Amino acid sequence: MKLTFLKLPFLTCVGLGLALAGCTGAGAEGDDELGSDETETEAEATDTDADSEASEGTDTEPDPCDDPQPGQVCFLDGGFLSLGLQPTTVVAADLSGDGEVDLVASSISASFTRVLLGQGGGAFSEPVSSTLGTGVRHLAAGDINLDGHADLVVAKVLGATGTGVAPGDGTGSFGAAPIANTGNTPRAVVIGDLDGDGWLDVVTADETGATLYVLLSDGAGAIPTITPLAVGVEPYDLALDDFDDDGALDIAVVERTPSTVSLLWGAGDGSFAAPEPFGVGDKPRGLGAGDVDGDGDTDLLSADHDAGTVTLLRNLGDRSFAAGESFPVGVAPYSAVIADVSGDGLGDLVSADSGSASLTIYPSIDGAGFGEPLTFYAGEQPFDLAAAELDGDGRMDLVVADFAGGSVAVLITGT
């Protein structure tokens, strides 16, 4: 069975079950915005326009989905896909090698993952399940064993705790993941070629151990070399990128207790310098990376859970970042991404606000920073957040893990 989504022009929220309910949700207070002065639902807008044309002969207002202006964001399609588990992590990647982005979701309390294979245009297959054991706290996807199929790197906090690689077969199914010891509470994993040998390596954050573990791959699915790196207390999320443009990947880690983001500058051989901290908002959890100003340098965005803000760290290009810029968002932001959902070529700021049942988006405006914040309903308790191009229109779309709702929400940007 193929799962497809309703076309929802003019609506500011998404969801098959919500499309006829006026587009409001718990915690959103009914004030979701389209990114313009228009605040009516589709049905109300249609009735108003019809009455106006009949009485005055005027034209309807232009649809911002057809021609978004600076500061506007529009989602045309969307839906909630039920998973049968409460997702704590969602990953968007081409798992089957067909050029379409697939989704994989896991829950710390479930013994299996759910994979939704992309069918193009924002449609997905029914879920494929793989048993990886209870306690999978985080996932990353990539071809670790170089067999042409994406594998899953898992961080497990229950049972055999640590980090493992579940080999993929290209159908959305994954084999067992032998677990390597990377502390008692692995919280996040990221993958990339850290030593320039052409094989994808792994970095894991051990939350209670105040340690990162660098796992260098041998290209056969094994991780023979594991190196611990001391960082700040409660490392919670990670990002990999060449933040200083020297050709080597660097590690960014968000640390809850000191309320910092630290950079560990990579040497290109799998080794890293001591962490250099930069201050952000109170008790951050999520971390996003992307270019917000078009200067070619990768900036960072923290989801400041206890502060109800996101903090932007602008990359100055010389192994330093400007002082953090704080932006108010919803209650208890859990994750954040930098992604161009407004279609202007610059990264927008996006947070998943777990206590507000919403996403908050600050759209970029070239030469003027960011527009007013826009809110969109994204399920009962949005935890994790991923950005990917799902429908081939060149603009980034969003996928949200709705923990309380047991689903993933898919928000397709419109043009």
Radius of gyration: 21 Å
Query: Span from first to last CA?
Result: 28 Å
Q: Please list the strands of the largest sheet in the order they lie side by side.
A: 2-3-34-33-32
Give me the secondary-structure category. mainly beta
* Helical segment count: 1
Q: Give the overall shape, derived from the CA principal axes.
A: globular
Mean pLDDT: 84
State which percent range the strand residues make up.
35-45%
Q: Ranges with pLDDT <50 over ≥5 residues?
A: 1-58
Fraction of helical residues: under 10%
What is the total tally of β strands? 34
Protein name: Na-Ca exchanger/integrin-beta4
Pfam family, one: FG-GAP_3
Region (Disordered): 28-70
Biased composition (Acidic residues): 29-66
What order do the helices and strands come in, and which of them pair?
Elements: E1 2-3, E2 6-7, H1 42-56, E3 75-82, E4 89-93, E5 102-106, E6 112-116, E7 118-120, E8 123-125, E9 128-131, E10 136-142, E11 151-156, E12 162-166, E13 179-180, E14 186-192, E15 201-206, E16 211-216, E17 225-230, E18 235-241, E19 250-255, E20 260-264, E21 276-279, E22 284-290, E23 299-304, E24 309-313, E25 325-328, E26 333-339, E27 348-353, E28 358-362, E29 364-365, E30 369-370, E31 374-377, E32 382-388, E33 397-402, E34 407-413
Antiparallel strand pairs: 1-8, 2-3, 3-34, 4-5, 5-6, 6-9, 7-8, 10-11, 11-12, 12-13, 14-15, 15-16, 16-17, 18-19, 19-20, 20-21, 22-23, 23-24, 24-25, 26-27, 27-28, 28-31, 29-30, 32-33, 33-34
